[in-house]
User: What shape does this take?
Amino acid sequence: MKKLFLALLAVASVATANAQKNTFLLYGNAGVNTGKTDNGAAVGTETETAWNVSPGFGYQFNHHLTVGVQGGYNAWKNEVVNTPSATSTIKNTATAREWQAGVFFRYTQPVSPIFFFWTQLDLSYLNGKHTSENITTVGSITTVGSASDIYNGFQGSITPAIGVNVYKGLALNFSMGGLGYRTTSFDKAPTTLNSFYVNFGQQFNFGISKNIGCSCGTKRGHHEPGMERRKMKKMEDDEDDE
Assistant: This one.
């Protein structure tokens, strides 16, 4: 991990500030979250896995504020396996697939030519499918039961992150989750669920962003090879004309 961090610093040392006024921002984030809890054979072992991808495209009105559209795809799986006796096993699996689409508002605060912080508010429409499966084995007999339902809803989330400029408007972004609120309504079962969640420190997200149409990397006082020689020659020619 230390070597990766030092490598990022080395690459970023040639970069300039990321946020550019009146430019377009294109980004893509990806995250994964895994966990396993062993509660004993009678209660069961629980394994949970979740991952997501979320691209976005926006317009930067100034060096701090960016507004645009965003979307995403999430997949989630929870599996509980318990053995109430030596000859029986119960396996419960729940999965969900979800699409998101909406708008975002991002505030960026540069702290150096290399590093910057940003916080993003996402407002999204949700559409997904939840599936549950129960497999019970007693001796040599196995029974399987399953059910699925489609849901729709809305979600609002706030995510803080750290950005590292690497080259001419190209940046790497890192976050550790955030907080949000969501409400979903299921079709088959007339049920509405409202939840407030905090996953800060529990989920790692990695992203790449690119400023389109910026003059990133242009530095004042930059000189092309031979510029000083051409400048001196021009001054000598001006003196001869006098």
User: Anything to note?
Assistant: The chain has two helices and ten strands. The chain has one domain: 2-241. The longest strand covers residues 141-167. Helices lie at 2-12, 227-241.
